[in-house]
Amino acid sequence: MNEKMKIAVLYTGGTIGMYAGENGLRPSQETVLQALKVYQTQADFDVTVCHPLIDSSQVTQVHWCEWQQWLQQQTHTDAILILHGTDTMAYTANVLALAMGSLRVPVVLTGSQYPLGTENGDAETNLEAAVQALLQKAAPKQVSVVFANQMLAAIGSRKISTQSLDGFANKHHPPLNEFQNALWLKSLCETNVALMPKTAMTPLNPNIRIASHYCVPASEQWALRAILHSGADAVILQSFGHGNGWFSQADVQVMQAYQAQGGMIINVSQVFDGHVAAQYEASKALLDAKVFMAGAWTVETAYAKVWVGLSQGLRGHALQHYLQQDVLGDAGCGS
Questions:
Q1: Do the strands 150-153 and 264-269 form a parallel or antiparallel pair, or are they unpaired?
Q2: Which of 5, 221, 301, 315 to pair with 79, CA 20 to 30 A apart?
Q3: DSSP 3-state of 63
Q4: Burial of 266 (0-12, 13-18, 19+ CB in 10 A)
């Protein structure tokens, strides 16, 4: 008789296990634990429930550090399942993929747009697909996201809808695998795995301060200047189109001074399928300020990559060199 697979489960909260509370939907553990019992003849689940459970919009760097430590402790398991809210699941996937380095077992994240028990919802189907990805050994030994019958590479993944059940996408990689008729198509997994280089784990530093500025039409980027004076270690600049925007000479001087003092500004496009290419005169100010042009990165990947680099103690040119290391294959950094 084959031994049952040992699956470590981290339940962080999120819509999948929520119920209607007095002030709106709030997470609970009972429905999730009950849902996992369906698979108890196939797997032994070692479930860790975060206290308190959170709406994923409330995740902090401290949570990620705790989850990284939890992952390190899972030395006697065959696979790992993380149940997560959808709002920041792509952030978590990108962060863990880059910070954990090479993995011994697959790590699958899933969640849902609707709670368990919702008629015509997606919670049961996403949980089924995620558990079966592990039971059928269809998930690679890396971090991946299972959602809407697809398995997505973690790096580059992003939430794209709050309405559709197809809530996630990865513009850089085709699906690693697809779930059809209760089976994962292993051939897809074998041919489409986005292989990550062998890397060591980076302990995440919860004291790193990363800010973001979303450009809107303005004669001066006064809000950006305020952020640059806030003490942030890095700032993600979400610019227009190919990395463009209006920046005054005063803006450029503030950006140059910030980076001369060891700060890092990363320019990503606001457009989901965007690419910062600095092809236009409107991006010259950012080039003059020596802002890091992040190519096709999503904001989630930029956040994860700069946090991991800063957690390694990298600053200035050393950090820029680290950021230039390819993390997205052919669709990676274009600077």
A1: unpaired
A2: 301
A3: helix
A4: buried
Specify whether 234 is located in the same domain as 295. Answer: yes
Q: Specify if 56 maps to a domain.
A: yes
Q: Do residues 83 and 16 make contact, with C-beta atoms less than 8 angstroms apart? A: yes
Q: Which residues contact 2 (CB under 8 A, 6 or more apart)?
A: none
The encoded tokens of residue 193 equal 């795995």
**Residue keyed to tokens 């077992």:** 105
In the predicted structure, residue 184 carries a pLDDT above the cut 50: yes
| Neighbour tally for 26: CB within 10 Å | 16
Mutual angle of helices 316-324 and 299-311, in 10-degree steps? 130
Residues with Cβ within 8 Å of 170's Cβ and at least 6 positions away in sequence, in order, are: 145, 152, 153, 156, 157, 158
Does the pTM of the predicted model rise above 0.90? yes
CATH code for the domain in which residue 282 is found:
3.40.50.40
Instruction: Tell me the average pLDDT of the chain.
Output: 92
Instruction: Spell out the residues 6+ positions from residue 186 whose beta carbon is closer than 8 angstroms to its own.
Output: 136, 138, 177
Let me know: does 25 contact 15? Beta carbons within 8 Å.
Answer: yes
Q: Which two tokens stand for residue 36?
A: 């996992």
For the chain, what is the domain count? Answer: 2
Range of the domain at 290: 210-331
Work out the angle at residue 76's Cα, subtended by the Cα atoms of residues 71 and 78, and round it to the nearest 5 degrees: 85
Crossing angle of helices 299-311 and 89-100, in 10° steps, is: 40
Residue entry with tokens 């028990």: 117
pLDDT digits (tens, 9 = 90+) for 207-218: 999 999 999 998
Q: Which two tokens stand for residue 23?
A: 């002030």
